[in-house]
Amino acid sequence: MNRFNFFLVVLVLMSFKTFACLNWDIKRLKNKVEVYHDHKEYYVPKGHNFKIKDFPALILDLERGYEKTRDLDYLSDKGYVLIIQGKYDEALKLYLEIEKIKPNRYSTASNIGTLYELMGENQKAYEWIQKSVKINPNSHEGSEWLHIKILEAKIKKIQNPTGEFFIGTNFGSEIVAKTNLSDEELTKLQDAIFFQLNERISFIKPKDQIISVLLFELGNISSMNENVFSETSEIFELSRKYGFQSNLLNERLLVCYEKMNEYCLKNGKELYESAVHADTLNDKLAKRIRKNDNIFNEVLIGFSIITLILLICSGVFFLKWKKLKKLKTS
């Protein structure tokens, strides 16, 4: 087997590794409609994949639910759907009405705070988020302290906020990130940053300075886990996409790609044996499939598409590595 085929096998096996480690985040409204069903790949924030197709029908169903039951959760969910649609003024008006009907509901205060922030009224957002935290200190998996720090940066109009301003720590200026936090503290911090970023990325597209900084810090935490260097590189790349510019980021990203290469070399023998075994199975499968030309043609097309995708992936990986290597030496 030539080196190129070997590299393709490596990519396939690494892909299997990634897809085998998933957690699911599901949100259902009061009327049982599923809004999103996301999979969590380690700690790579990608935002919610909203599944709503017929917004008017969904809103009508929620309104009918409220008329029948007088359960404010239906109205609150209607406001959430309006936020997804980008109808912030309408959603804010609804939540303020809910607040009048029944004051001090956590979801009402939290959503009003979120809406004010999305509308650029950061002081009001800060006050409502503070209120929501007082109502439910453990809200949003205990990560709202970071939301408050983000709003403080916006209110103070800090030009170049650092990660340390937001999270109260840093991971050094060396190529390899370091920390004095315990494993438990680091995991809690990682959870908080991921949660806040995943919510923000759902509504805020690149570029955004605060998101870029927090992505860099999330990547730094991830880089200290040697088993997820592929995911770490994805987080760093996302940080760059959102506008973060730093030689340190480039150096740490380059380390990720170097570790990916080391992984391939270290596990070369096992991967080679797996590839040979796969070739043998493919030969046996091909002989059986050829008995039915139609199935064979379909499978052949499928393999061709997969091969093309892997070719593109390998090309992209090589170009990124080459570009970062050049940045490091310049």
TrEMBL record:
PROSITE patterns: TPR. The keyword Transmembrane applies. TPR repeats lie at residues 72-105, 106-139. It holds the Pfam family TPR_8. Keywords: Membrane, TPR repeat, Transmembrane, Transmembrane helix. InterPro entries: TPR-like_helical_dom_sf, TPR_rpt. The chain crosses the membrane at residues 299-319. The keyword Transmembrane helix applies. This is Tetratricopeptide repeat protein.
